[in-house]
Amino acid sequence: MSEPLTIVVVEQDRDRALAIVDALKGAGDCEVVVIGHSSGLARRIAAHSPDVVLIDIENPTRDMLEELTLASGPLERPVAMFVSGAASGLARAAVEAGISAYVVDGLRPERLKPILDTAIARFHVVHQMRAELAETRRALEERKVIDRAKGLIMKARGVNEDDAYAILRKAAMDQGRRVAEVAEALVTAAGLLS
User: Fold this and answer.
1) Do the Cβ atoms of 118 and 124 come closer than 8 Å?
2) How is 50-106 classified by DSSP, letter by letter?
3) 3-state secondary structure of 39
4) pLDDT 10s digits, 54-85
5) Nearest-angstrom CA–CA distance, 101 and 79
6) Which residues pair with 80 in a beta bridge?
7) Which residues have CB under 8 Å from 110's CB, separation 6+?
8) Which of 10, 107, 128, 152 is least buried, going by the fewest C-beta atoms within 10 A?
9) Could you tell me the pLDDT band of residue 188, with boundaries at 50, 70 and 90?
């Protein structure tokens, strides 16, 4: 059995907040915390360490969207934002800021569960892509450093590229370190690492 989701709902209107809580409780096992005003929003959201943040806002401005986005931590957790009307460019800004679901035409209880499920799924896909991108960037940086180190060895010892790599690999094995670490130390010592 999985643990219930902790959902923070950002909603200023008390009646709407109660309707949202009822819809969430009806949709499944969850703990719901309502935040009724935006003062100290980031701190208050973080204090609950929610699995999901749901924001219901009538007509957001770009500044309000940025503030809510920063406060809700969309890179840390799924965030679903419900708005009443489509304002020019806000949907794009919300997606670029990491909002997992930006729903125009407000929040309707019958749509809540599928939208939250979609926001959670989208968050996990984007999170995985970010992790893969970071790993690819790290691997490319390591490859550059290894290539620089091979160049230094080739120049200093008058050997070809394969032999230079073999020297790096042997040094790494002798030191119990990764080839990239040995290459970085060599390049740093040569003053070529920026």
Assistant:
1) no
2) -SEEEEEESS--HHHHHHHHHHH-TTTS-EEEEESS--TTHHHHHHHHT-SEEEES-
3) coil
4) 888 776 667 767 777 776 776 788 888 888 77
5) 7
6) 54, 101
7) 23
8) 128
9) very high
